[in-house]
Write a structure and sequence with these properties.
It is built from 20 helices and two strands. By secondary structure, the protein is mainly alpha-helical. The termini are far apart.
Length: about 575
């Protein structure tokens, strides 16, 4: 018996070793980034690819549609209660940070073949397959919960708007739009939220042209309303309300910047539109940065108006901007704000559903998810399977659960994605100078420096959160030294497309601030990060490593674009 056990143990050990070896080699695979832009695909000729319909204005409006929701009418006032008129500086600081992140996105968006994927695609090429899959998992959970939360908010705002009219006043049941709780609050039924998801899904499945038209109309409407609100409010400003400008000091302003940073999140949606852009090399950077600049200008205008109309300490909590105009007897402006909020939430929901379906499409093409997600309708040129899946999850969550309570676990995925993109700009520049990958030791040395920047940013954020400002400054010094080491120890090449300026310092600053913000999140967000990462690795070990096809040959399904 003993003699027969030896081969069994040896076979088991060999099998385990083979599994681990295959896992490591698969996890460290990368996607080649040298695919030419003028490749014709057989799948395009058979009508199975996405179609290029998005111009530069469309891309800008996608970014604006994703970023400007109902929050512009609420978060500006709620943060102003703590920072005073200095909330304007908070939005400027957060906007500058987002611009730096946008510069990183713009560079990678123009140096890659114009295919779907965004941060996932960039991580796949700059780092490895497992890192890319982890980035996708963290981002997509943010999207799933965020989309469901937006759908419920849209339902609530719609009900509130309808109740302005006497025929609907007190005649709409909670289960229709506000949520009717059952089983002690475990289930919260909301009928209107999944209905909105279904309507927008129909538009998205119909075609990118129809999506673009609806988004352009709704985004333009909300921008017009915001500009109108700023214009009318400017005549009600009392400049004495701006003094003192920072009543609670700069510390409150900086804290406010960490809060309002997430009001700008959405410009990355433009990067996921690469495959449907008419001229991606030219238009993507304009769409990413242009949409962000518009959002910054609108937020600053609203901040100046709301803090100039009413003393900051008298601002309301639930609807501060609407209450400010009501206090001046401008009730019609409050009605316009309600319409603007509905339009804003509609575009945010629409773009969120659009972007996430393209993320699933990219994973399906690469084999990390079942191939059914890679299907594109031959007539409508939309990823209908991915779109229906995304909408099913959003509708289910929005219709049965109060996902607003999950807000605490959001944003960690977005910040992770931003940081990986910034790091990717640095690492990919190392390869450009010699047209071959940097040596293993040099590459590891650079990654260690990037990790020092990230850890310093997270440490600075933690110490800042608990009041140790001087220790935060020491951590910032460590990050600066690591950035200098990156600059001195590596040679950085040029890029053919849009170049991010100041490499490696600008990407390093992005990583530092993103991780600084991460430290401000609730601990539930980090529990979610760890748990989801473990689940993702298990799924990858059981499925992804055996089905992934990192070569770009299978994903070059786009119409040719002039260089």
């Amino acid at each position: 018996m003993g003699g027969r056990n030896v081969p069994t143990v040896s076979s088991s050990s060999s099998s385990s070793s083979s599994f681990f070896s295959h896992f490591c080699s698969s996890a460290l695979r990368t996607k080649p980034s040298n695919s030419p832009y003028d490749v014709f695909s057989n799948r395009i000729n058979s009508g199975e690819g996405l179609i290029r319909r998005l111009g530069v204005i469309d891309l800008i409006l996608i970014g604006v549609g994703a970023s400007i929701g109902a929050g512009i009418f609420v978060i500006t006032g709620t943060v102003a209660r703590d920072t005073g008129p200095g909330v304007t500086i908070s939005f400027i600081l957060a906007g500058v940070s987002c611009i730096l992140n946008a510069l990183c996105y713009a560079e990678l968006a123009t140096r890659f073949p114009p295919v779907v994927g965004g941060a996932y695609l960039y991580a796949y090429t700059a780092f490895n397959e497992l890192t890319a899959f982890l980035v996708f998992a963290q981002l997509t959970l943010d999207y799933h919960i965020g989309i469901a939360s937006i759908a419920r908010s849209l339902a609530g705002y719609t009900v509130s708007f309808l109740e302005i009219f006497p025929i609907f006043k007190d005649n709409i049941s909670n289960w229709f739009g506000n949520g009717q709780e059952f089983f002690g609050g475990v289930v919260s039924v909301n009928l209107l939220a999944p209905v909105f998801v279904a309507i927008l899904t129909f538009i998205l499945c119909w075609g990118v042209g129809e999506f673009c038209a609806i988004n352009s109309i709704m985004s333009s409407l909300k921008v017009i309303i915001v500009v109108f609100v700023i214009f009318v409010g400017a005549f009600e400003v009392d400049v004495s309300n701006w003094s003192p400008f920072t009543p609670n000091g700069f510390h409150a302003v900086l804290t406010g910047a960490t809060v309002v940073f997430f009001a700008y999140v959405g410009f990355d949606a433009v990067a996921n539109s690469a495959e449907e852009s008419k001229s991606p090399r030219r238009d993507l950077p304009i769409g990413i940065i242009g949409s962000l600049l518009i959002c910054i200008a609108l937020y600053i205008g609203v901040c100046l108006v709301i803090t100039g109309m009413v003393p900051y300490y008298l601002l309301g909590e639930d609807a501060p901007l609407a209450e400010a105009f009501t206090s001046k007897g401008l009730n019609f402006v409050s009605l316009m704000i309600s319409i603007g909020a509905i339009a804003g939430l509609t575009t945010t929901l629409l773009v969120g559903l659009y972007v996430q379906s393209r993320m699933y499409l990219g994973l399906g093409r690469d084999g990390l998810l079942p191939s059914i997600f890679s299907k594109v309708h031959p007539k409508y040129h939309t990823p209908i399977t991915s779109q229906l899946w995304v909408s099913f999850v959003a509708g289910l969550l929005a219709g049965l659960f109060n996902v607003h309570s999950l807000a605490r676990i959001l944003s960690v995925g977005t910040l992770t994605g931003y940081s990986v993109v910034a790091a990717g700009v640095v690492t990919l520049r190392w390869e450009d100078k010699t047209a071959s990958p940097a040596s293993s030791s040099t590459w590891r040395e650079g990654v260690i420096c990037i990790m020092v920047v990230a850890c310093s940013g997270f440490g600075a954020g933690l110490f800042y959160r608990f009041g140790s400002l001087w220790v935060s400054m020491v951590a910032a010094v460590f990050a600066l030294l690591a950035s200098i080491a990156l600059h001195l120890r590596h040679v950085y090449g040029d890029v053919l497309g849009f170049p991010c300026p100041g490499v490696p310092f600008v990407p390093a600053l992005c990583i530092f601030f993103n991780m600084f913000l991460s430290a401000q999140l609730h601990q539930e967000a980090w529990v979610r990060f760890v748990v989801l990462s473990v689940i993702t690795v298990i799924f990858y070990a059981c499925y992804g490593q055996y089905h992934a096809t990192p070569s770009l040959e299978g994903s070059e399904i786009y119409f040719p674009v002039p260089g």
